[in-house]
Amino acid sequence: MFRSINKLSTHLNNRYVMGTLSRGIAEQRSSMEEYFKDKSFIVTGASAGMGKVITGRLLAMEAHVFAIGRDIDSLPSIPDLKLTKVNVDIGDWDSTYKKILEMGPVHGLVNNAGVAHIEPFMETTQHGWDDTININSRGVVRASQAVAKNMIAAKIKGSIVNISSTISERAIPDHVSYCASKGAVNQITRTMAIELGPLGIRTNNVNPTVVLTKMGLIAWSDPKKSEPILNRIPLGRFAQPNDIADAVIFLLSDYSKMINGVNLYVDGGFMTG
């Protein structure tokens, strides 16, 4: 009798566990795209390339986007009330903080603004070095400080996505300032993840390989320059701007709400070899 009761108890317990697991597996979730509707985001470097594509993707999902650039005339001109164009020089420490703080709370920030001065190590100039570090690294810190302050005040559990690079870890010739600036971004992101994570703010990197924007097509058109990198990419191609936008959208969304402080390589496997 006791054996029968024990079997019945075990059977009922297994049914309960399986039922709970089944409900968990079948749990309905809204689509990733629905998360963005009516939320606000900031995209720096939105005038061209990846920044313009990311801005367009966010607008298509009915998000409000503050599109930041140094040349306001080059920013996206989309007839949409949810687009706010803002002229900000991310390399300027004081005005960057002031202007971004004035935008008020947002749900996410994409630190995409960047420059690249192509100079051999022995010919690296002070201007090339300072401009690259100011925009690519220091600008990330300053923009993120303003955004994080507003998020904390509004109790928003937001997401900050920094655009780094595979050459933050694998150097290539003629890019000493760029490699250094993106290596700094990796460590900035990790530090932000540690300090802002307990406040509900996630920080992650997207680390692309060569991206074939209009400028990228020109810069990497010489096979002597492009083939050594391309030959190390198992997928056999460079990235398109939408490949980067896909990764950014994922990291901004609540589909990545347990991801914090990572480098997400969008490189076709370049970093594996």
What is the N-to-C order of secondary-structure elements (H for helix, E for strand)?
HEHEEHEHEHEHHHE
Beta fraction:
5-15%
Radius of gyration: 22 Å
What is the terminal separation in angstroms?
63 Å
Mean pLDDT across the residues is 92
* Biggest β-sheet strands, sense, barrel: 7 strands, parallel
Q: Tally the helices: what do you get? A: 8
Uncertain regions: pLDDT < 50 for 5+ in a row? none
Placed side by side, the strands forming the largest sheet appear as 3-2-1-4-5-6-7
User: How many individual β-strands?
Assistant: 7
Overall helicity: 40-55%
Structural class: alpha/beta
Apparent shape = globular
Task: Explain this structure.
45% of the residues lie in helices and 13% in strands. By secondary structure, it is of the alpha/beta class. It has a seven-stranded parallel sheet with strand order 3-2-1-4-5-6-7, with helices on both faces. The longest helix has 29 residues, at 126-154.
Topology of helices and strands:
Blueprint: H1 2-25, E1 40-44, H2 49-60, E2 64-69, E3 83-87, H3 93-102, E4 108-111, H4 126-154, E5 159-163, H5 176-196, E6 202-208, H6 214-219, H7 223-230, H8 241-252, E7 263-266
Parallel strand pairs: 1-2, 1-4, 2-3, 4-5, 5-6, 6-7
Helix pairs in contact: 2-8, 3-4, 4-5
Short account of what is shown:
This protein is an alpha/beta fold and 273 residues long. 45% of the residues lie in helices and 13% in strands.
Features:
single chain; 273 residues; alpha/beta; 7-stranded parallel β-sheet; 8 helices; 7 strands; globular
